[in-house]
Fold:
Amino acid sequence: MSTNTMSRRTFAKVGVGSALAAVLAPGSLTGLEQASAEELNADNGEVKRIRSHCRACGKMECPIWVSVKNGRVIKIEGDESAISSHGNCCCKGRGAMQALYHPDRIKYPMKRTNPKGEDPGWVRISWDEAIQQAADGLRKIVEDPKNNGWHSIKILHGTGRTTTYATESLPAVVGTSNQGSTAGQVCKGPRIASGAMIAYASPHWVASNDGAKCFFQWGTNQEVSNYDTAGKVAAEMKSNSEVSICVGPRLQNLGKECDYQLHLRPGTDDALAQALINVIIQNKTYDELFIKRWTNGPMLVVDDLEPSGFAWTNKYEMPGAYPLNIRTRLLKESDMVEGGSPQKFAVWNARQGKVTFFDAPSGLWEGETGPTYPDPEKDCEVLHPSYLTPEDDNYDDTAALNTIDPGFPEALNLDPALEGEFEVTLKDGRTVRAVPVWQRFAQRVAYWTPERAAEHCWLDADLIRETALAYSKEPGMGGIMYNLPIEHTGNATETCRTILCLSGVTNNIDTFGGNRGSDLLYFLYNTYFQYHTPFVDNKLTPDQSGQCAGAVGEDGTPGAGRFPLIPWAGQVGNAAIFHDQTTCTDQIMSGKPYPIRGMISCTGSHFHSGNAVANWEAFKTLDFYLGWELWWTPTIELADIVLPARHFLENTCVRASQNGEGGFGAMVKIVEPMAESKWDSLSLINELAPALGAPWWPADKSQVPFLGQFGDAQWPTEEQALDMSVITMKPMDFMGGHVMQAGGPTELGLDGAPLQFDSYQDFCDKFQEHGQWSLKKMSPFGYYKRYLWGWLRSVEGYFDSESEDFMVTGKPGPLGFPTPTGKFELWSTVLESYPADTQGVEREVGLEDDYLAALPIVREPYESPYQTPEVYEEYPLIMTTGHRNPLYFHSEGRQQPYMRELYPVPHFQIHPDTAAQLGIEQGDWCWIESRRGRVRETADLFAGIDPRIIEADHGWWYPELPAPKHGWDLSNVNVLVDQYAQDPVLGSTTLRAYLVKVYKATPENCPDGHVVPRDPDTGIEIITSGDDPRLREWMPLTEEEKEAL
Amino acid sequence: MQYAIVTECNKCVCCYACTVACKVENNPPLGNHWTKILRVGPNPINEGDTFPDVEMYYLPMKCQHCRTPECVSVCPTGASQKLEDGTVQIDKEKCIGCQFCVMACPYDVRALNKETKVVEKCTMCEQLIAAGGQPECVSACTGGALHFGDLDDASSEVSKLVAEAGDRAHTLPDVGNGPTNIYILDKQKWRL
Amino acid sequence: MELQWPLVVFTTFICLSAGTFGFISVASMKKEYARIQLPGLITAFAALVIGGLASVLHLQTPARYFGQFGNITSGINQELIALGLVAITMVVYFVRLRRKGDVGRAVKVVSALLSVVLVLVMSHSYMMASMPAWNTILLPLYYLLDAASLGALVMALLMAVCTEDDTACSKAIVVAIAAVVLLALAVVAFAVFFCSLAGAGYTQAMHVDLLTVPPVDPASIGERMLSGDLAMLFWGGVVAVGLVLPLAALVVSRKAPRASVGATATAVVLVLLGGLAFRALLYCAGASLLVY
Structure:
C-alpha cells in the first residue's frame, strides 16, 4: 500500500492481515511504537474473542464481543448479529476495562471500626466472619421485640454493575415488605405499574428494532442513554422512519433532527398527552375498532351507581399475589341482575339496541362459547423491518407475525356504542342513565384544546395540532418511547398512563414497532430465573406485603397507608418492586408505625429517590447495614459490613434483554474475579440466607417438581442456580393443535424450534456459537397484538396435576388484556378503586366532572410559577434535572479515567440571555438553590433551552474526596428535592420541575471562600480537568498487581 | 488514493463511543484525545430567531489527513509524512518533539504526548485499515454517522455519499491545506 | 496557545545575535566603529549559543535530529541552515579579524546579509496559515526591527565602553533611538493588526467537554491587550518596559554616552525584556484557525 521508506513497524503492529490481528489494542501495552510482530508472537499473542453481554449500564444488556489476550480484557465491542442491539456498544461498555481493573474496587469483606458519619476505618475480615456478623446483626434487629420482625429490615439496590438481583427475591424468603429499590420508585416502576394497571406490564418498551413509520421519543435520549432501546437501534429507527417526534424541554442529541419538536414546560407532559388525544378525537383519527373491541371505551358508566366489584390480581414475575379490591361505577351484570357477575361488564349494542355483556375472566362476549382467534391464512402477515432486505443477514431473525384484527365475529351481531346516553334498569328497579366510557374520556380530554395546552405547556398550538395529526395519520404508526422524566414531576402514574392511552387510541399497542412491553419470558418459557435470580419460594402474604413503608397505615394496618398500590406494584415485578423511600426515611427516624433499623443492599445509593440529605441522616442511624458493592460510594460508607461484588466481566448468568426487542443469551465469565469478590446475588442466596436460616427452596418439593432434580438442597449452589435457569425451559403447547409456530406460517420457514439446553454449560456453548437468540423466532413470542391470541393472559397455574409440572404456562389464555375489565383501560378501574390521596394539596387542572380517579388527571407540579407563584418570585427558574450523559450511568463512572477526563465536573444548562442577566459566563461555578438547599455546578450557556428553565446534571459525587461523604452534597441535585412532593399514587419523588434560583459562586458566598468545591475538612479540591494527576492513579491495575491482591 | 472519513453530521448524537473506542484502541495518554466531538450551536436558525427556533449539530473533529498537509511541510525531520493511502502519519522514531506541526495545524488536532515525548494524532487506525478493517471510530459510531473509504475511488461508498450530498458537503476551513474529511450537513447552516 | 518559553528565548536571542552581528559588520566599515568588532562578535556569538541552546531545550528528543534532516524545506531546517551559515560566518569573521585585523568588505557584507536572512527565515517559519495572528508581513518586520534595535543598542553600549569617541558614541545612540522608534511603530502596527482580527476567518465551536474552560475568542486579542487580561503584559511589558523606558534611558545617555553606560546597558536589557514580553503576547494571540 505504501512505498514510503518509513518503517511501517513504527506505528502499525500488524504484520499479518488477519481479522484477529486487526482487533489488537494496547491494553497493557504502552504504545504503538513499542509493539512489533515479533514481540506479540513472543508472548503468545493470541487474541481470543468471546461472546457475552454487557452490563456497563443497568439496561440494554447489549451483546458484545470481548477480546482477551493472555487472560486480559483488551477490547469490548458490539456484536452486530444481536437482534436487540444491532452491534451497539456505548462508551461505557467500551471503557469497561477501566472499571474491571480499577485499583479502587472493593476487594475484600470489610468491617467498620468507627462510628457512622466519620471515616469508617474499614478493616479487612474474612468472608465467613462477614457473613456470620451480618447474619447476627440482622437477626438482632429481627428478633428485637420492639421491632416488626423482618419488616424492620429494608432493601436498597441500584441496577448493579455486578450482576443480579437476589435482593429482589430475598424479601419473599424472609418476609420483609420493604422490598425492592428506591431506584425503581423513580425509574420504570411507575411506567411498569401504570402499564399493568391499564394494559400489561412495561408497555413503554417499544419494539424499536422493527422500525416504525413514526419515531416518537417522549422524555428520552436513547441515542445516548440506551434506555432499553440501544442507541444504535434508536438512531436507525429514526433514520428509517417517515415522521419523527420528540417531546422534551431541551434541544436533544437526536431529537434535534425530529420533524416535530415539542419543547414543553417541565411537568406538563400529562396535559400535552391529553391535548394530543383530544385533537385525535376531534379529527376522528383514532382507531375505532381497537377502541370498541379491545378497550373499555364502550363500557357503560352510571353516575348513579354505588361502586362495587370484586377482588382482582394480575401477578407477573414474582409469585405472591396481592389482590386489589376493585370497586367501579362501570355497569356490571351484578348491578342489573340479582346474583349476576360483577366481572361481566355492560356495553350498549347499537345493532340490537340493548345491553350486551363482556365477561372479563373468560374474555368472551355474550354469545361466544370460546375465543374467536384470527384466521392464520387470512388475517396474518409476516412483517420485516422496512429497512431490511432479504439479503440482510438478520432479515429472518427480525421477522414477526402481524395480525390484522378481523373485528367482532359477525355471529355476535355486535357493534358497541362509543357515544350516547342509554337508559338501563338496575336490579333495584331504578332506571338510570348510562354513558359509554369513551364519551366521558373524550369529555375529559376536551378541556385540553391545543390553545389551552399551548398556554399551559409553553408550546405552540399549531405544533400540538400538527403533531397529533402526524402521529394518527394512520393506525400503527409506531410506539411512544416514554422514559424517566415522565415519572419525576409529581404526577408519574397519571402521566404514564395518559401517554399509553395516546398510543392505545391510535392502535400502537403491541404492534410492529409499537408499544410492545417484553416477551414475558418468565411465564412463557418455564424459566424461573426472575431477572437473573434463581427461583425462590415466596412466603410474602398480602398482609405482609401491605406493611411496607408507604402502604402501611399509621396505626400499622397493612395496606391502609398513603400508597396502597405499592405492594400490588411489587407483584407486577421488575423495577415496580419498591417501597416508599420517603416514608421509609421518616420511619427510620421516627420508628412509627414500626421501626426500620436495618438495611441490605446490592449497590444502591441514598441520592436517587427522596431527599438525599434526609436519606443520609436516616441511613446513618441504622443499627445494621450490610451491603455488596463494587465502589466506595458515599452510601456504602455508612454500612457496617461491606462485601466485594464481582464486575460483570467476572461473572456468568442468563441475560434476557429487558426491552421490547426480544433477545436472550448469556453473560459469560471472561476473567478471574478481582481479589475476593463474589457474585453478589449468589453469596446472598447461598451464604447469607443459610446463615439467616432462610431457605431459598422448600424442603418438600412436591409442589415444585422441577426443583426435585436438585435433591434436598434448600439453597442452590452456583452450578445449580445456573442450571435451573436454563434446563427448566421447555417447549410450549402451541394452542393444542393450531399450527401456529413461532413466526407463523411457511414464509419464514421457521419451525418454532424451542430453546432447550441440557445444562448451563450447554447453554453457554450454544450461545458462543449462535449469539443472541431472537425470541420472536424461537417461541410464540413472534406474535404482535398478543391480545388477539390470548398471549397476554396466558394461563398460569402453580401445579398442573396432569403433567405434574409446576407453573405450566404457555397455553394461551383469554383474549384481551390482563386488567380488571379484561380490556385496555381508558377508564382505569384500579385507579378508580384506589383514588390518590393528595393530602389536601390541590394541583388538579381541567377537571370538569367528578370522575377524578378513573380518567386521566392533569396535575400541576408541586412547585411551579402557577402552583406556587409566591415561591416563583424568589425562585424564578424552573429546573429540570438529569439529562442523559453517555459517559456516566447515573452516579457511576466518576472514577473511571476515560470518562472523567471527558467530563470532569457537573454542568447545568442555562440560556445565554438568562446567564447574561445573572452575570454568569460559560464555565462559571454557580449555586443552584431551592427551598431545601443549594449545590454548585458549572454553567453551560445553551441556547437550546427556554430562558425560564435550567437543566442540571444529577448523580454527582466525588470519589477523589475523602470518606465517608466523598463530597456527595457539594453538587448532588437531590439535595434540592422536596421528598414530600410525591406522585399521589405510587409516591415517586419530584426530581424535576421544581423552582430554583441561580447565582454565581464567589469567594464571599462559598464555604471557606473557595469557589471550586472541595472537601471541607481536608481542603482537597475536586478534579476539574482531564490533566489532573489523580486520574492517573485510577488507571487499571496491571495483571501482576491484580494477582498480588 | 485518499482514505478519508465522511461524516453525516445530522446523525452524530455525541455519544462518545468513538472517542472512547479510539482511546482503547490507540492509547493516547490521559488528557489527550485523537478525536473530539464539537457542539456547533445551538444557534438561531435565522438571524434574530430565539428559542425554540434554534439548531445545532455535532462535529467529530480529528486529523483531516490533508491533501497538502501543513504539518508535513514544517516537519524538520520528515517524521510527518503523507502516505500513499492518503493518510498522514507520524514516524515516532523520527519525531524530535519540536511541535511546529502542532502550531501549523489549522485544526489543532496534534498534541505532544508528554510520556513518549513525540507528537501524536489520529492515525486513521492505520494498524486496522492496513489489515482491511476500518478505523475504530467508524466501527463504534452509534448514529451511523461515520463512513470510511477512498475518496479518489468514484465507486466507493464515501465518494457516492459526497456526490449525492452536493452542496450539503462541507470541509473545515481550508487555507490551502486541502482537508479531506467531508462533513455532510442537512437542513442546517454550516457554520465553520 | 501555550507559551513556549524556550522558543521565546530562542528568537529573542537570535535577534540579539543577528542584530549585533549585522550592526558591527556594517558599522565597522567606518573605522571609528572598528574597535567594537571583537566584543560585538563575542556578544553575538554568545547570544547565538544561548538562543540555540534554548531552542534545543524546546525539543523533546534533540538527539534524534542529528542524521535525519528529512525535510529540507521546512522552516526549522531553513532556520538551522541559516543559523549554521551565520555561525560559520562568525567564526570566519573572528579568525580573519584575529589574523588580519580587518576582515574585508566582502565578509562584512555577507555577514550583514546573512544576519538579515537569518532573522527573515526565523520569522518566516512562524508565518503559518493556521495562525491568523502570526500570518502577517508585520511579523518579519517586527523581528527585523527588534534585531535592529537590539543590535544598535549593543553597538551603542560597546562604543561607550570600548571607545573614547564621543561623537561616534552619540551617533550610535541616535541610531539606537531611531531603531527603537521604528520598533515602536512596528508594535503600533501590530496592535492595529490585532484589533482587526475579527475578519480573519476564525471559526469557533464549543468543544463539548470543554464546557468549564471555554475557548477564548481569538479575535478578542486586541481588546485583551489594550484593556483586558493582557493589558499589563502589553502596556507594562511591551510598551513601558520595552519601548518607553529604554527610549528615555537613551535620550538621557545621548548627551554623555560614555558616562551613561549604565543607562545604555539598562536600555539593552529593557528592550530584550520587551521583546520577550511581545513574543509572549504573540503566543497568547496564537490561536489556530478553528478554535474549540
Notes: The longest helix of chain B spans residues 17-26.
